Amino acid sequence: NVKYILDLLKKDIIPVVAGFQGRGENGLITTLGRGGSDTTAVVLAVALNVKRVEIYSDVAGLFTADPNIVKEAKVIDKTEYEELFNMSYHGAKIVNIEAAEIALKSDNITLELKSAFSPEKGTKVLKKVEEGKIDFKTKKFARAVTHIPDIIQISIKLEENIDEDKRRLEIYSSLAEKNISLDMFTISPGILMFTLNSEYKEKAIEILSKLNVNFRLRENCAKISLVGTRIHGVPGIMAKIANSLYREKIKILQTVDSHSTISCLIISKYPIRIYFYLNIICFF
Questions:
Q1: Which CATH number is associated with domain 146-283?
Q2: 20 to 30 A from 152, CA-CA: which of 52, 84, 182, 206?
Q3: For each of the chain's 284 residues, which pLDDT tens digit applies?
Q4: Domains 3-129 and 146-283 equal at CATH topology level
Q5: CATH level 3 topology of 3-129
């Protein structure tokens, strides 16, 4: 109910709304989690049917890579909500992922990400970028490279002469019951592979051991993702990535892709090198 806020605006009073807070299903006041003020701003924008939201932080906008790791990373001038959501999901910390998801579902909001400490214009996030009407700084296929550390890969060898689909379902369900989120699935006859955050390591080992599963665990992995709505249907992108990593002697352990992302699982000791290298081939 935004009537009170609208009444204040009609009186030329600027409302100051506390972010990071909301009301749960039980009616009690609760917090919205890390970055919840971003969510508050976007939810208010949708409810008030406003055209623009400005979010200020200590960085100058969205970067092509983490500027703390890649000093050559550049601010992205304009991008789309789908790319923003995927950047947030795959490790970029600039915007709360719930805020990005809400903005993705909206029809007419422009989100501007700026620094509170510099006059730079930051990043403009639009529902859909129309090529030819908006001039991008980059003409490359990807918009950004993101990084999620502390990943564990689990490889499972399924038993012979069993219903493999039923066995996989049992594994999925048992892990889900303990609120363990899985990612990067690879399924082939007799094999199941997936990844999870290292914080779930002990729980996962306990569950798989109780299921009498033959599994192998690889620690100290990282997930590197290329994000960009232009990568879909473009021949040779994965070949270019694989060739670049091969030349750097970086082994790809697993891959997963969507129409706007390509993710590679690698050993964690490599991210600084791979971050720099993929940023160069994708953006400069």
A1: 3.30.2130.10
A2: 84
A3: 788 999 999 999 999 988 888 777 888 888 777 778 888 888 888 888 888 899 888 888 888 888 888 877 888 888 888 888 888 888 887 788 788 888 877 777 888 999 888 888 899 988 765 544 434 444 567 888 888 999 999 999 999 889 999 999 999 999 999 999 999 999 999 999 999 999 999 999 999 999 999 999 999 999 989 888 877 777 888 888 888 888 878 899 999 988 888 999 998 876 666 766 666 666 54
A4: no
A5: Carbamate kinase (3.40.1160)
